[in-house]
């Protein structure tokens, strides 16, 4: 059944997936490395904005994500 908990758990898993993407190992293979997001002038493209979003999520959500994962694990252990 689709509940609020499954929605929260799915968003937590997606945040975990974004946080573990490694730029040099994974993203650079597809042309999404550090150098791909450097543009001298003009409006940033959609690709540059997605790269900035990934970097921002990785920077801001790293510590809170640890606590959210611990809470989710405890919740799963207690309530199944």
Automatic annotation (TrEMBL):
Keywords assigned by UniProt, alphabetized: Membrane, Protein transport, Signal, Transmembrane, Transmembrane helix, Transport
Family the entry assigns: Belongs to the YOS1 family.
Subcellular location field: Membrane
Pfam family, one: Yos1
This protein's record includes keyword Membrane: yes
Transmembrane segments: 60-79
Signal sequence coordinates: 1-17
Record function comment: Regulator of endoplasmic reticulum secretion that acts as a key determinant of brain size. Required for secretion of extracellular matrix proteins. Required for correct brain development by depositing sufficient extracellular matrix proteins for tissue integrity and the proliferation of neural progenitors. Acts as a regulator of the unfolded protein response (UPR).
InterPro entries: Yos1
PANTHER family: IMMEDIATE EARLY RESPONSE 3-INTERACTING PROTEIN 1
Protein's UniProt name: Immediate early response 3-interacting protein 1
Highest classification ranks of the organism: Eukaryota, Metazoa, Ecdysozoa, Arthropoda, Hexapoda
């Amino acid at each position: 059944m689709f509940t609020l908990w499954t929605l929260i758990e799915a968003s937590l898993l997606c945040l975990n997936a974004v946080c573990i993407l490694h730029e040099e190992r994974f993203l650079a293979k597809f042309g999404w490395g550090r150098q791909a997001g450097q543009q001298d002038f003009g409006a940033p493209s959609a690709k540059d904005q997605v790269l900035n979003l990934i970097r921002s999520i990785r920077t801001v959500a790293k510590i809170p994500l640890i606590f959210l994962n611990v809470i989710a694990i405890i919740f799963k252990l207690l309530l199944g």
